[in-house]
Amino acid sequence: MTGPGNPLLRRYLLVLMGGLLLQGLGSLLFRLEPALPAHSPLLVRGAFGIDFWHALIHIAWGAAGLVIVAMGRSVKPLVGLALAFGAFYTAFGLLGVLTDHPMGLELDAPENGFHLVAGPLSLAIGWWAWRRRVEGARS
Fold first, then answer.
1. Cβ partners under 8 Å of residue 10, min gap 6
2. pLDDT digit of tens for each residue in the chain (139 aa)?
3. How many CB atoms lie under 10 A from the CB of residue 110?
4. Among 31, 59, 84, 96, which residue's CB has the most CB atoms within a 10 Å radius?
């Protein structure tokens, strides 16, 4: 099921991008149906409590990422996805910490925490997979 390329990188991106898509869609549903949050447990409200535009960012990254993972026949596009996502989310997290609700997004401690874990972790895994690719090409 993991396909060609680096299986760890592929699995990581599949879980990450799938999770972003599901979380974004759930958040969008919460925004479009206001009665849902009122009748949901705190944990569910917390997981799906992001604002509309933030949800769309998660949906866009998740959907695009899953397409890249599904179509990636080599490790190169997966490494590119991991590094691009990692850079974007690291910057997103830093912006959220350094400014109050940047671009009108409701980025608070839980969101910034997620961004500052997922971003650098994606950068690290992408860099590691890139190094393995380069070393493999040399031998």
1. 2, 3, 69, 72, 78
2. 344 568 999 999 999 999 999 999 999 988 888 888 788 777 777 777 778 999 999 999 999 999 999 998 899 999 999 999 999 999 999 999 999 888 888 888 888 999 999 999 999 999 999 998 777 666 6
3. 12
4. 96
Q: Is the dihedral of CA 51, 53, 54, 58 positive or negative?
A: positive
Cα dist. 36→33, 56, 128 in Å? 6, 19, 41
Q: Whole-angstrom Cα distance, residue 74 to residue 72?
A: 5
- Say how many CA atoms lie within 13 Å of 61 toward its Cβ: 26
Measure the CA–CA gap between 26 and 32, rounded to whole angstroms: 10
Cα distances (Å, whole numbers) of residue 6 to 19, 28, 98: 20, 33, 35
Helix axes of 7-32 and 109-138: crossing angle, nearest 10 degrees: 160
* Coil, helix or strand at residue 24: helix
Model pTM above 0.90:
no
